[in-house]
Design brief:
Distance between the termini: 29 Å
CATH architecture of the largest domain: 3-Layer(aba) Sandwich
Largest sheet: 15 strands, mixed
Number of strands: 15
Number of domains: 2
CATH superfamily of the largest domain: Gcn5-related N-acetyltransferase (GNAT)
Order of helices and strands: EEHHEEEHEHEEEHHEEEHEHEE
Structural class: alpha+beta
Shape: globular
Strand content: 25-35%
CATH topology of the largest domain: Aminopeptidase
Number of helices: 8
Length: about 325
Amino acid sequence: MTMDTSMSIEFTIRKMRDDDLAGVAEVEAGVFTDWYRVHRRDPEPLPERTVEELRYATSIDPDGNLVALSPEGAIVGFILARSWGSVGWFGTFGVPTQFQGLGIGRALVACTVEHLRSRASMVGLETMPESGANIGLYARSGFDVTFPTVILESVLEPGSNAADEEDGERLDTWSSLDKDARQRVAGQMREIGDGILPGLDYTPEVEAIERHQFGETLLCLDGPDLAGFAVLRTAPFRKVERHARGYVHALALRPGCDRAAVMLRLLDRARSRCLGAGLTRLVAGVSTRYPDALGLFYSNGFRSQRTAIRMVDRSSRPDIFERSSEVNSSRWVG
């Protein structure tokens, strides 16, 4: 796709390739360094994301990750996307400051949204509340604001993981399962996801975390049944990390399980894994659409750090604007 705006800047949009990743990392760091200086009064340059992290992030839905190129081949914008079964979402996305306002961002969003709509029944995004211009762009592109995300953090303290001292319950990992067990557990993950949102499937994230050796998926089993799972990332996000953090990329519990016990087991094991990797904090994102999930994180020692804005395609299910009693945690699912 080639665009020519009224200011006579031409750019071509194409699928992101592996040899683009280093350039995308450089552009992303520059874009958000500028943004943090303006909106959060942070003068420090933002370190670049690692190429390995971008390779992992773009592997889940390769066709939704795009770059905008100048006629000389320079990257003048990028957008990332993920698909989890019936749910698709995009972000991070950025255009260098000197190229903003020229239609590049609008074109990138339009292209990736068209791709996501072709394969997902619900499409959305997450952005920062200070990003008024982006919120306006997304609103003009057909998205409505829904429940905000609360970004939570737990400070890790060695020796505080009581669940690791108990052997009475089964806590397995995805990487420890054989082929048949994986097939069975993956089916149960999809059942849990389907109860949260019809067609939601977290297994692409589970498989990507393992394939790229970025962390582990923790499983709480009640006999043959999956009571809950947590996808934990322990690999670094940027080349230089200001804070040694692990991230819960997704966490979900089966309806009817002992929620408090299963949550305690998963989060304590996640803490133990993070401590073993030399990390000092554990971060999760929970939509306020899921108040029970939020309460369970608070009762397990997490504290609110900031919020993010969630937006969904207006053509999505209307019940996404209603609260849910399910226990679900991820950076974007409605």
